[in-house]
């Protein structure tokens, strides 16, 4: 289910990434324009930070990091960055939306996108993926090879340097804490995502483990983090507000991951540019979990003997099993349930809450960029 376009108003026109002379653009054209402006900002920020840091002492390394940024960061819609800026513009008092404050928000948004690149290249390496953004994954390039881990570490350090260069005081300290927690959470999710298939134990394909993967790999850094960072920038952050964010986006996180599982199941290259292979890799997906919840003993045996295999016949058996159990219909029902629960949660927010329905609806709308096929 896609949120109605009329339900979402445009962002405030104060952001530098928005072109005030093109207010009549289509939503797709507007986002493409924002993306280009965002990419220009990222390149400027990265160039300035590297020029003043240790990396500048090793020109070949600086050139390599720029190439990595161009190879990944600049080839996709910077969704996390856009959502961070969006959250800041909605949550900040209009009088404080100065050029200086907006630039700080842009810096944080850029840091989010660079962190996203760090996660993606590590994820591709650990999954041994072949393509991303319609081209070979970074770790498959001849000049990368065994330097992939060092490249990832350097990119993560670049994120920290950017935050240190532009932020100070408690805002900087809180930002570093959030980013460090993000690295930890995603690593936990990555651990579960990779060890469950390797265990070859179907008892691990449970709703509890799937929920953990959703929480650590998706909900936290895709949804919670942009709002939390914006609140810190606005100096309106506190633990009760963070908890309300968690409660609201929990269902959205499931929506995202279930949609990702559905896209992978289509057996085509997803709009994120990554080829789908969840069945072959034995991933703990919505479909795997629901299969074992619904399957007969005989069907469980088919799943056990065929799931996690690259044999085309085994993959076909699993796909047929999904059809027999009518899991696509179940997916659609669960999708609608989670969506409606999300709407209920935001509509139940107190009228004086700093968190507004507008904020969450805009973030949901932003996530529908993949329906425009511009990743």
Automatic annotation (TrEMBL):
<dbReference type="GO" id="GO:0042811">
    <property type="term" value="P:pheromone biosynthetic process"/>
</dbReference>
<dbReference type="InterPro" id="IPR000092">
    <property type="entry name" value="Polyprenyl_synt"/>
</dbReference>
<dbReference type="GO" id="GO:0046872">
    <property type="term" value="F:metal ion binding"/>
</dbReference>
<keyword id="KW-0460">Magnesium</keyword>
<keyword id="KW-0479">Metal-binding</keyword>
<dbReference type="InterPro" id="IPR039702">
    <property type="entry name" value="FPS1-like"/>
</dbReference>
<dbReference type="GO" id="GO:0045337">
    <property type="term" value="P:farnesyl diphosphate biosynthetic process"/>
</dbReference>
<comment type="pathway">
    <text>Pheromone biosynthesis.</text>
</comment>
<dbReference type="GO" id="GO:0004161">
    <property type="term" value="F:dimethylallyltranstransferase activity"/>
</dbReference>
<dbReference type="GO" id="GO:0005737">
    <property type="term" value="C:cytoplasm"/>
</dbReference>
<keyword id="KW-0808">Transferase</keyword>
<dbReference type="GO" id="GO:0004337">
    <property type="term" value="F:(2E,6E)-farnesyl diphosphate synthase activity"/>
</dbReference>
<protein>
    <submittedName>
        <fullName>Farnesyl pyrophosphate synthase 2-like</fullName>
    </submittedName>
</protein>
<dbReference type="InterPro" id="IPR008949">
    <property type="entry name" value="Isoprenoid_synthase_dom_sf"/>
</dbReference>
<comment type="similarity">
    <text>Belongs to the FPP/GGPP synthase family.</text>
</comment>
<dbReference type="Pfam" id="PF00348">
    <property type="entry name" value="polyprenyl_synt"/>
</dbReference>
